[in-house]
Write a structure and sequence with these properties.
Blueprint lengths: L1 H43 L1 E5 L13 H4 L4 H4 L13 H10 L4 E7 L26 H12 L2 E7 L26 H17 L6 E5 L11 H11 L4 E4 L12 E4 L20 E6 L16 H13 L2 E7 L9 H17 L7 E2 L8 E5 L5 E5 L6 E4 L5 E6 L8 E4 L2 E5 L10 E7 L16
Parallel strand pairs: 1-2, 1-8, 2-3, 3-4, 4-5, 6-7, 7-8
Antiparallel strand pairs: 9-10, 10-11, 11-16, 12-15, 13-16, 14-15
Helix pairs in contact: 4-5, 4-9, 6-7, 8-9
């Protein structure tokens, strides 16, 4: 009996050791996978956001159910008219590539609870509630994988349709749901849907959460959900649009219609983390399809936002809202292609860079490549000279593209560079600053223009 107990204890200790080793190996694999994913994400710098769902049918934006106080029974009728037979996943991915985008983030489920894939957790989905029996997320995932574009899934934690999203939060009061739902049961439903998205669509770049702000004091079981995601896909990145400092398990931080640090969307600048950053915005004023919104931003405005995002160390996720037929508005296509042509020429100053040594200014921003090259993006400056802060290890300045050598003077107050001449249609004058191995001493020359 004593021998048996010794053998049992030895076996038990060995099992714990093996289990601990296996867990350590899994944690190590997750750490390496995450590090690679984070590096890729920060290098990508530009992505396509897609807000698309049954709300495209009325064509008044993705918040139409809440804004117009439409009860569930009436809202569900839109699904019978949602039949996007012109949806073409290849055309969408082709457009993203022409725009110079490296990844796509699409709404798998927005606040109306409608699933854009044939989920087994509810019949409120594109296969069961509409005439369109295809799976657009599967088609998009297959095409994105084929063309080397990463795919992220937006998922709304808020749900105006589900009976267990209870008690109600700040929104969804007019949906007509009965009281008495079980919020933990809803969270089980959410995790089951996320499991489908993370097991049936190949490698996923990450999950883009939204809606937690509707019930900020609720127990969302974030640790359990984030662990689920990281266990199913160790390299998938998790972000949440909750307008707070990141929670444990989150891998990037997003800013809606806001640049990191601009503090125009409820963010306190103290909440900006050291995680990878992403700013998102629209081409017109709407996320989902809005037939009457013709306030399109110019391609120059979009390029400036992209550049300023990179100068803030952030990606730019630019949104389109496809029509009920599944097509992309020509005004969106035109602007995306114009941004793509600009990136074909100037992408080296954006892709793979990090925020440069000069913090964002009203005149523009700086970005820095991994080899130490600094790109000065002059967006709003008409004078011939620009004064930069003291950058003692800069050896030379040249015009991006042409390589033309630019006059460079060093003063105790800073570095003066003569800017290349701007053409009338130029969106961004880019100066290339090359570093030296040793700092260059400042001269006593005077006179410069500064911000």
């Amino acid at each position: 009996m004593k021998l048996f107990r010794k053998v049992f204890r030895f076996a038990f200790v060995l099992m714990l050791a093996c289990t601990g080793a296996a867990q350590a190996a899994n944690d190590d694999a997750r750490t390496h996978a995450q590090a690679d994913a984070v590096q890729w994400f920060q290098d990508a710098r530009f992505g396509l956001f897609i807000h698309w769902g049954v709300y495209s049918v009325p064509g008044r934006g993705e918040w139409v159910m809440e804004n117009e106080k439409i009860p569930i029974a009436e809202y569900e009728k839109f699904a019978t008219r949602f039949n996007p037979e012109k949806f073409d996943a290849k055309a969408i991915v082709d457009l993203a590539k022409r725009a110079g985008m490296k990844y796509i983030t699409i709404t798998s489920k927005h606040h109306d609870g409608f699933a854009m894939w044939p989920t087994k957790q509810s019949r409120w989905n594109i296969a069961d509630a509409t005439k369109f029996k295809r799976d657009p997320l599967k088609e998009l995932a297959d095409e994105a994988h084929r063309q080397g574009i990463k795919l992220f899934f937006y998922y709304s934690q808020l749900d105006w349709h589900h009976p267990d999203f209870s008690p109600l939060g700040k929104t969804g009061q007019a949906a007509g749901r009965k009281a008495g739902g079980d919020f933990n049961r809803y969270l089980d439903y959410m995790d089951a849907q996320l499991t489908e998205l993370l097991t049936n669509y190949g490698e996923i770049g990450g999950i883009w959460f939204d809606g937690m702000w509707d019930k900020p004091d609720a127990d969302w079981r974030l640790g359990r959900t984030y662990d689920l995601i990281h266990r199913l896909q160790p390299s998938a990145l998790v972000g949440s649009n909750h307008h707070k400092a990141p929670y444990p398990g989150e891998d990037f931080q997003m800013f809606e219609k806001d640049l990191p640090g601009a503090n125009t969307a409820g963010f306190n600048t103290a909440h900006i983390s050291r995680l990878p950053l992403e700013a998102c915005d629209t081409i017109n004023g709407a996320w989902g399809y809005n037939a009457k919104d013709h306030s399109y931003k110019s391609s120059k405005e979009l390029i400036h936002f992209l550049v300023r995002a990179a100068g803030a160390g952030s990606n730019f996720l630019l949104n389109i809202g496809p029509t009920p037929e599944g097509t992309v508005q020509p005004e969106f296509v035109e602007r995306l292609e114009q941004v793509g042509r600009w990136l074909q020429t100037n992408g080296a100053s954006i892709y793979g860079t990090r925020a440069g040594p000069v913090p964002p200014r009203s005149w523009g921003v700086t970005t820095e490549a991994k080899d130490g090259t600094v790109y000065v993006h002059v967006l709003e400056w008409q004078d011939e000279y620009l004064l930069l802060p003291p950058l003692q290890d800069i050896a030379s300045a040249s015009a991006f593209g042409s390589g033309e050598t630019l006059e460079l003077r060093r003063l105790p107050e800073g570095l003066i560079v003569k800017l290349p001449k701007a053409s009338a249609d130029q969106s961004d004058r880019i100066v290339v600053l090359k570093r030296s191995a040793q700092p260059v001493a400042a001269s006593s020359e005077a006179g410069a223009h500064q911000d």
